[in-house]
Amino acid sequence: MGLLLTAKTCLRLSLGAANLALAVFLLAGAAFAGEQYVDREGRAVSGFDVVSYHTAETPQMGLADISAAYNGAVWHFASEANREAFLANPQRYIPAYDGHCAWAASRGYKARTDPQAYRIVEGVLYMNYDAGIQRRWERDIDGFITQAEANWPELEAEPAASPPRGWFR
């Protein structure tokens, strides 16, 4: 009986340790995620459906009543199917650099983005500040991505870029 009690105690301790390790792992992942760039309403990608960037000819505006919270932002979707796809694997769909401008990240700072200035490279959604910066970024995509990747570990901890002021966007 004493041996059985010890085995049960060991099992409980092992399960407790496993749960603690899982909690630490999940919290560490959340701590390493940077601040998502959002508009003034707290929407990621200005309310565009990030799944549609990967699945439709052109990005679609999401609907407020089909949304999900992730990484401190509200993500809108054009359909329930897109919302479910996102929730099943957010990392597949979220923009690189927490939605900040890929060109700016390559230059060592965070900047807001225009949801129409984007490019998908090897399955990753890269956003840029505007069409002009997008054209500049497209002159050397691989080089700018390499520079941004080198800068990102330090940039990630910085606060998110501020959304634009005024009536536009």
Automatic annotation (TrEMBL):
Question: Which domain of life does the UniProt lineage start with?
Answer: Bacteria
Signal peptide from the UniProt entry: 1-33
Q: Is Signal set as a keyword in this record? A: yes
UniProt KW keywords: Signal
* NCBIfam families given in the database record: YHS_seleno_dom
State the protein's name. YHS domain-containing protein
